[in-house]
Write a structure and sequence with these properties.
Layout (H helix, E strand, L loop, with lengths): L4 E6 L3 H12 L1 H8 L3 E7 L16 E3 L3 H5 L5 E4 L5 H12 L3 E4 L2 H18 L3 E2 L10 H8 L5 E7 L2 H12 L4 H10 L8 H4 L2 H15 L18 H9 L2 E12 L2 E12 L11 E8 L3 E8 L3 H17 L26 E11 L4 H11 L4 E6 L7 E8 L2 E2 H12 L4 E10 L1
Parallel strand pairs: 1-2, 1-4, 2-3, 4-5, 5-6, 9-16
Antiparallel strand pairs: 7-8, 7-10, 8-9, 10-11, 12-14, 12-15, 12-16, 13-14
The chain binds NADP nicotinamide-adenine-dinucleotide phosphate.
Length: 429
């Protein structure tokens, strides 16, 4: 049997613990698949005294010095499972410079500084693998890099944050308000104490930057990606969406339009017959449309101890099998070219509008006049008044419209004296 592949692990939190467990539990399967053992030599953490709830294998040492992982010539792969930017960035750079391969689950770091880190890995001839960093246990990185490599990717659409999807699912099926659904997600351990990355769409944006790179071989900078989260989604809109046959989901999407990329993170109405609308609870899914393969869908757990560790381990095993062929982005160019980005205001989509308006004659006519001026045509509309209420919701589903026109129309309509609250608008998939 070939000599063991030796791991230095940084971080023994949720994912690190999962990796330790799965390495022990599946040791025989791993050995059979790669023809060698995976040995965990050293684990680095911040606090040596903390109870970990997991037993390290005999012979594995625990250290508070990250440098040990880099300096030890016996370590082949440094596994960065700490998260955060600064310490992880330094560790990865030093590990690559020391000739080690790196496996990371750190989407934030790769979304912010991936261009540079992938170039460093390329120059060093080392693997910088990151299956776990994009949609956790769902093997979308490898699918794009290898299995779908022969396709031109037409469109990639995903539900990529389990916390946001759990909250929206609870609001939809349990009739909860946003705040109650968030509290429930926190009580179940799905949401962090500070859930802003999840519910403001930032986490989805990190993943979308990584997947855009793999799908199109272009660098779409995080700063340029339009991002809208789910804090403003209300039960009222979820109920109206349902009446029209849609569910509201937090979507990350990138597609090619006229040779440019149109991408964004936004809550959208998804037709209930679509598979994406049926992705419930904390599950994730990514739908990829290739020009040869057509649409495919990957569905599973995007986070959690064992699902995420499953992806980390797959990267370790890929390196163990084929250590001399690093292919970090799926494209040999380094750094990747900057993406040609379509102005988000030029994006075309169907839209959902909910106007809150005074219940008086002429309102519908005034609204439709502005919409006609902006070439936005109406597909469906409903108005629901309550007996004696001074104002009523008026909901309109449009045909495809240009985002710029939508913004101009809503600005004009919201300035009219019969509008009592800013108009709610969402894209429709
Ligand atoms: N959790 C998930 O489901 C999930 C899913 C996909 C991707 N990820 C990514 O996986 C990574 C790890 O996430 P996690 O949830 O496992 O994090 P976590 O539970 O907070 O664990 C982080 C671990 O890293 C250690 N650490 C942090 N800074 C360190 C430093 N400067 N030096 C040494 N050790 C340090 C911590 O040590 P102490 O324990 O001593 O404090 C802890 O053991 C993140 O990049 C995250 O985005 C997580």
């Amino acid at each position: 049997m070939e000599k063991p592949i030796v791991i230095g692990l940084a971080g023994l939190g949720t994912v690190g613990r999962g990796l330790v467990r799965i390495l022990a539990e599946n040791a025989d399967v791993i050995r059979r698949r790669i023809g060698r053992d995976v040995v965990l030599k050293t684990v680095a953490v911040r606090d040596l005294a903390k109870q970990r709830g997991v037993e390290l294998p005999a012979g594995t040492s625990l250290t508070a010095d990250l440098g040990e992982l880099v300096r030890d010539p016996g370590i082949d792969i440094v596994c960065e499972l700490m998260g955060g930017l600064s310490a992880a960035d330094t560790l990865i750079r030093e590990a690559l410079a020391a000739g080690k391969h790196v496996v990371t689950a750190n989407k934030h770091l790769l979304a912010e500084r991936g261009q540079e880190l992938f170039s460093l890995a390329h120059a060093a001839g080392r693997c910088l693998y990151y299956e776990a960093s994009s949609v956790g246990g769902v093997p979308v990185v490898q699918a794009l890099k290898e299995s779908l490599a022969g396709n031109r990717i037409v469109k990639l659409t995903g539900i990529m944050n389990g916390t946001a999807n759990f909250i929206l699912s609870e609001m939809t099926s349990g009739g909860l308000d946003f705040e109650d659904a968030l509290a429930q997600a926190q009580a179940l351990g799905y949401a962090e104490a500070d859930p802003s990355f999840d519910i403001d769409g930032v986490d989805t944006a990190h993943k979308l930057v990584l997947l855009t790179r793999l799908a199109y071989g272009q660098h779409y900078s995080l700063a340029q990606l339009p991002v809208r989260g789910i804090r403003e989604v209300t039960r009222t809109d979820i109920e109206f969406a349902r009446e029209f046959g849609y569910r509201i989901k937090l979507i990350g999407q990138v597609r090619q339009v006229d040779g440019m990329l149109e991408a964004g993170v936004f809550p959208a109405l998804v037709k209930y017959t679509y598979l994406l609308a049926r992705v419930g609870g904390n599950y994730n899914a990514v739908r990829i449309e290739g020009n040869a393969v057509g649409p495919i869908m990957l569905h599973g757990q995007g986070a959690g101890e064992l699902p995420t560790a499953s992806a980390v381990l797959a990267d370790i095993m890929a390196i163990a099998r084929d250590a001399c062929a690093p292919n970090n982005t799926g494209f040999p160019e380094n750094p990747l070219p900057e993406a040609a980005i379509q102005d988000p205001e030029d994006a075309e989509s169907q839209y959902y509008f909910r106007f809150q308006v005074a219940d008086r004659p002429g309102v519908m006519a005034a609204i439709t006049r502005v919409m006609a001026d902006k070439r936005i045509s109406i597909a469906q509309a409903i108005q629901k008044g309550k007996e004696g209420a001074a104002d009523v919701p008026l909901v309109i589903i449009t045909h495809e419209a240009r985002t710029r026109m939508v913004h101009e129309a809503l600005a004009e309509i919201d300035a009219m004296d019969f509008v009592v609250a800013p108009t709610v608008h969402y894209r429709i998939l």
